[in-house]
Amino acid sequence: MNTPTLQPDQQQEPDQQQESAKSAAQDESDLIQTFWTRTYFIVGGTTLIGGVFFSGIWSVGLVFLSYILNKVDGGVQQRKLEAIQRIADQIEARFPDAKITLQIPIAEAPRPLEMFIELPEKRFFLISVRAPGMGKVFYNEQHEAICFQRKGRSGVTRYKKPDLIEQAKENEHWIRKNRRDLFGGSSRDARRTAVRVLVFAKPTQLKSIPEHLYDNVASLKVPYIRNSKGTIYILLEEQLCDFLANKPL
Questions:
Q1: Are 236 and 206 in contact (CB under 8 A)?
Q2: Residue 112, preceding bond cis, omega within 30 degrees?
Q3: 148 and 132 in contact (C-beta within 8 Å)?
Q4: Which of 4, 65, 142, 227 is the most exposed place for a label (fewest CB within 10 A)?
């Protein structure tokens, strides 16, 4: 079977033997400007990653990019990058037929959509990933805001620029209009339901959330936020694969 592949947008690999220190510094600057788009097509256990069969090449690039991002922001983007890689690997292992597209640039949005997933039977998921670190996430009903409280600190950070729920809604609207190919290309496919999911990577945990904000998905009990800005499921990394397996169309 001939399987199409999408090339990463601007993925770069360092060549330590041939590049000078000056060009290496320029490579760092270029990498910080953009992430990559990565699509997995798994056929009979074979994974094509950017048209390259050797996972070792991808791993070297990931380590190099993680090092750069850690220097820039003290580790926040590094944790996120590692979380995206880890979550994608978990989904691959659990769903061999999954099609996963990573880091989709959204026009006028402050950051790309981290993950778009298509599972068999045309089940679509738009997944945003956050990796704030040690602490607990919760939903403030009064302010209609998702908040994070870092472990060992009394203060609370409110996600408001952008608002995560509103941004997920706008991302879906943009993708339906500009990336219909992800849904299959036809007008009928473009109207299919897509589930918005916000995933918090390890070691972040959920703080107590009011009972009426939970939804039951098979044996899972997960927060499902519905407010004036939109709707979204809030999951921990370790819940995602079970959620994908059991969320009905």
A1: yes
A2: no
A3: yes
A4: 142
| Cβ-proximal residues to 182 (8 Å cutoff; 6+ apart), any chain | 101, 104, 116, 118, 124, 175
Report the residue count for the chain.
249
pLDDT of residue 74: 54
Lookup: tokens for 153: 């600190």
Query: Looking at this protein, which amino acid is placed at residue 90?
Result: Q
Strands 157-158 and 38-43, bridge-based pairing:
unpaired
pLDDT, tens only, 120-163: 999 999 999 999 999 999 999 998 999 999 998 878 888 877 89
Q: Count Cα atoms within 13 angstroms, Cβ side, for 79.
A: 16
pLDDT tens-digit series, residues 151-162: 988 788 888 778
Cβ count near 27 (within 10 Å): 17
CA nearest 135: which of 200, 204, 207?
204
The closest of 128, 126, 138, 157 to 209, measured between CA atoms, is 138
- Residues 189 and 176: their CA atoms lie apart, in Å, by 10
Residue 86: left (phi > 0), alpha (psi -120 to 50), or beta? alpha
Mean pLDDT of 40-47: 36
